[in-house]
């Protein structure tokens, strides 16, 4: 018992120290999960051999694996399949391709090439299993692609969405292929038709969860110590994991299915952050450290056949992605295409899953499993770095936030002119105007006419691809469902004009920000009475209060004393999660901090560009 607890403590300490060491030695280009595997190598069989595997570590590692597959399912953004703005034009002047169609064609090409390359390996006598190798070569790591696109601030560009869609499709298809592989190779433990029971159960649970999610009491029970939403998620995971094992499938399929259901239900972003925090803060690091612990590099390097396989597999990974991705050359320059292909070569979680499962059912040896995992680790270290180095800076998303104002009125019209054109790309949408109103509006403001405020119309105009949407039509009954729909489509910020307290509560439950003329007027009057000096700051166009989101990794952990861009800007307050911090010289800046500053508009704009947008951090 004592020895097993000692091993657990060593693994947990190793997981804790890994991100600190990566930060200390400025190795932020290496994904943390890769760092955890490397640390596992050091303390495991390939290094000091400090770990004794037992039930404790086995259970924690398995739970980490299950939770990793669950969060992989949660990461899938199904709104990406809805398509983007029609007839859009790329910065180079070419017409934008249909993102979904291009992504499907490219993945089909990847899959066909993976099959052909797998047969070449079999004919050469290097491997025996075509199906397994096809699965491993064709998979793409969504967990590497998503953060890399976010760091580059190209997630919502056309090329970013195409890369994301290819990764999402690969993640879904290869998970299904893995299930089929286990069913065919696992010695008849389960029949394929039984897996349909699992998917049917998932569909039923989805509709039950959707029905309960709309109930007001569910939101009330989600607060405080009850946390019914989190309990529901863990119940869903365990039910589907148990069901998947009972029908002869792998437990990770049930976990992945649970994650996709949660993603489809458009959960509260705060709950997703909590799940991420629990998973990536505790269970998942233990799993990745144990992956490194179990890898025996010395036995790999002593086998000449496996040594030959490592570079050949890396070449196969590259070829399977590069050739199909060159279809994008029709619309993009060579550097963009090559860098995209490198990013799509990164692979990790599903390769580890496939290798571990194939080893467990006796389809491959432990050494072969370790070789597949090692190749996956190498690709995840190299390819994101090459993407960052090669991706053309001129193709990066412009340093502007796309803002869509829906509804032209006395509030939105002047705002379109007051928002800084250097920071915001603002478009005002309104239904068809009378001829007289149209002449007045177009003479002073730029208003884009649309037929109606239906979801389909807004989607056709590409409004849901905005960073910020403000629904300011004169009818709160129109604003409310549109705002909720926008949040369901993962729009970063949604603001809606709603006066009714009941409707305000409804949209706030969906993370929509509420603007109310009555409440704003009351707050303004109270502030004029209680804090006239503060109101002068707020209404002063040159020295007002501004909010800046800290997104630039370059300044992560930097103290305000060492911050190089203070100039004539004063840091008034820092909001970090639910915490409000009064800044001083030794206060450190961290990613996702919301900084409240005051100073000249020109200098604040410059500071926003530095902190809110990072080309390569």
Automatic annotation (TrEMBL):
Q: Which UniProt keywords apply?
A: Antiport, Ion transport, Membrane, Transmembrane, Transmembrane helix, Transport
RCK C-terminal domain location is 532-613
Q: What residue ranges are annotated as transmembrane?
A: 6-22, 29-48, 60-81, 102-124, 130-150, 162-184, 190-209, 278-301, 307-328, 340-358, 370-391
Keyword Membrane listed? yes
Where in the cell is the protein located? Membrane
**Origin: domain of life:** Bacteria
Give the principal location in a single coarse category: membrane
Q: InterPro entries this protein is in?
A: Cation/H_exchanger_TM (IPR006153), Na+/solute_symporter_sf (IPR038770), NAD(P)-bd_dom_sf (IPR036291), RCK_C (IPR006037), RCK_C_sf (IPR036721), RCK_N (IPR003148)
| Topology versus the membrane | Multi-pass membrane protein
Q: Pfam family of this protein, just one? A: Na_H_Exchanger
Q: Which SUPFAM superfamilies match?
A: NAD(P)-binding Rossmann-fold domains, TrkA C-terminal domain-like
Q: Could you confirm whether the keyword Ion transport appears in this record?
A: yes
What is the similarity comment for this entry? Belongs to the monovalent cation:proton antiporter 2 (CPA2) transporter (TC 2.A.37) family.
The protein's name: Monovalent cation:proton antiporter family protein
* Organism expressing this protein natively: Heyndrickxia vini
- Classification of source organism: Bacteria, Bacillati, Bacillota, Bacilli, Bacillales
